[in-house]
Write a structure and sequence with these properties.
This protein is mostly helical. The chain has helices at about 1-30, 40-45, 60-70, 75-80, 80-100, 105-115, 120-125, 130-150, 155-170, 175-185, 200-220, 225-235, 240-270, 275-295, 305-320, 330-345, 355-365, 380-385, 390-400, 405, 415-425, 440-445, 460-465, 500-510; strands at about 410-415, 435, 455-460, 470-480, 490-500.
Length: about 525
């Protein structure tokens, strides 16, 4: 009877914490938020071009976005509804893992709370991208692996293969999870299962599900490998292991990091936790891979944290049962929550822009970015939610001012997928010509058969443009108070008189990064 009451309490806590996470994101999507993020424009464009792969990502999140758009439309709320639901599910799975580890109501509450307020998870689930699904697949894999350690049923191997395969079809970084799981199997009693067909069946299922993206790459000159190489060498070349490690404090906050470290201790040292050491092995192996890579973004480690939160919460629950430490059962989550609330505006756009700028100045936190760009008043994540509609309106104004005789042979040249995606997205509101861009999948979508006499070019300078077009005139400028600086005060040119063919421009301007 006592156990049944405890189970009901745990289920209730999991439900409440998941709903709380959902409420945070739904509130932001409905009443706050700053606008569509740069990458979201690109993902929407990708969903208009269904394929088994894209230069910078596998196809699953794009297929889901296409379905989401079909059902709910293209509003900001509709775009971010699915990430909000996925965030809530990930919190729920974290609570279920904690319950599987025999954590009580307090441990389940703490593990869920740590994920609810983790800045990196708030940020990743506040926009549409493959990253919110990545956290879900890592957490699902951890839950299934705990079930394997406890019951070792064939169905668990099959489910693990499905989750890993879908995870890979969402983001290639799940390979790190797969490596950690393989190491865990070898280091745990599960290694005896290597003599059975089940682990190999799981690997086969994962490979089959991931195969479409492999085939797509083989038929597209290994485009994704080229993208990853360029991103590491150029886009993230300023990142170092020291920055990667130090940033973890900001991503999950000091109390969250402490909880994760306690979780490592639980899985590696504590007698009741060593049975589940695999969860720590997954984290450590992922950490090693990312550090050795040297130029890894700090948030890549994020999806490995929820499993550590579960172990840390279980061990703290054991410790805090001591009479002398019982007061910490209230202090620890309270401090975690208070710091989470204070930091939340830097992870999710819950404050109006001016209020956020004032708040960040009072706290003394300067804008930051991970891609070596200059910033103004807003961090890169927020700056990239501003200025896009104004950009489309400005380009449309230039386009409609052209003589009718040349409009049908005019296209927009955008240097990056954010600019190109914004043109495509706002086409329903403003008259705009076709868009050409050499960036990532837009390079693959480039139409060399267009019969053009004129280009409207976003950004750049006259001397560079005159290497391809004889007549170049600066006709307007794109301005936005809060856009990232390199998308602000951006000149717009009208150019004509092609000196090179459209195909030559396409080949020379290619950008996979």
């Amino acid at each position: 009877m006592i156990r049944q009451k405890s189970d009901r309490s745990i289920v209730a806590i999991i439900f409440i914490m998941a709903v709380a996470k959902l409420a945070i994101h739904l509130y932001t999507n409905l009443f706050a938020g700053y606008g569509i993020f740069r990458d979201e424009f690109y993902y929407i464009a990708c969903s208009n071009h269904p394929a088994f792969g894209y230069v910078d990502q596998p196809p699953l999140s794009i297929f889901l976005l296409a379905l989401n758009r079909l059902v709910f439309g293209d509003s900001l709320f509709a775009l971010r509804l699915l990430p909000a639901l996925v965030a809530a599910c990930t919190v729920g799975i974290t609570g279920l893992i904690t319950k599987r580890l025999h954590g009580g109501p307090w441990a389940v509450f703490l593990a869920c709370l740590a994920l609810v307020v983790a800045p990196v998870h708030l940020a990743m689930c506040s926009i549409y991208s493959m990253n919110c699904f990545d956290w879900l697949f890592w957490s699902l894999a951890a839950y299934i692996f705990v079930c394997l350690l406890q019951k070792n049923k064939p169905i668990h191997w099959i489910l693990l293969g499905v989750v890993l395969g879908l995870g890979l079809l969402n983001k290639v970084g799940v390979l790190w999870l797969g490596f950690g799981l393989a190491a865990s199997i070898i280091l745990s009693p599960l290694r005896k299962n290597l003599r059975t067909p089940w682990p190999w069946l799981a690997a086969g299922i994962a490979f089959i599900l991931f195969a479409p993206f492999i085939i797509w790459n083989l038929t597209h000159d290994l485009a994704h490998l080229e993208f990853m190489h360029n991103a590491t060498q150029y886009k993230y070349n300023g990142l170092t292991p020291v920055e990667f490690l130090s940033a973890q404090i900001l991503l999950i906050m000091p109390m969250g990091l402490l909880l994760a470290l306690v979780g490592l201790g639980y899985f590696f040292i504590h007698k009741s936790g060593r049975k589940y050491m695999s969860l720590a092995v997954i984290f450590v192996s992922t950490l090693i891979i990312l550090v050795v890579n040297w130029h890894s973004k700090s948030e890549y480690l994020g999806p490995a944290y929820p499993a550590l939160f579960t172990g840390g919460a279980v061990l703290l629950e054991i410790w805090f049962k001591k009479r002398s430490l019982v007061w910490l059962k209230y202090v620890f989550p309270a401090v975690l929550l208070v710091i989470g609330v204070l930091v939340a505006p830097f992870a999710i756009a819950v404050l109006p822009v001016e209020d956020f700028i004032s708040y960040s100045q009072k706290i003394g936190i300067a804008p930051e970015n991970t891609e070596s760009h200059d910033l103004s008043q807003l961090p890169q994540f927020y700056a990239d939610m501003h200025g896009w509609e104004n950009m489309a309106a400005t380009v449309s104004r230039v386009y409609t001012s052209l003589p009718d005789s040349v409009k049908s042979t005019t296209a927009v040249y955008a240097h990056n997928y954010g600019e190109a995606g914004a043109m495509d997205y706002f086409r329903c509101l403003y008259p705009l010509p076709p868009v050409l861009s050499p960036h990532n999948n837009y390079w693959l979508w480039w139409d060399n058969d267009l019969e053009l006499t004129t280009l409207i070019i976003i950004g750049g300078n006259v001397p560079d443009h005159k290497s391809s077009l004889r007549n170049v005139e600066r006709v307007d400028v794109i301005k936005s108070d809060y856009a990232i600086p390199y998308e602000n005060n951006l000149p717009v040119f009208v150019a004509s008189g092609f000196l090179r063919s459209l195909r030559d421009i396409w080949l020379s301007d290619k950008i996979f990064i």
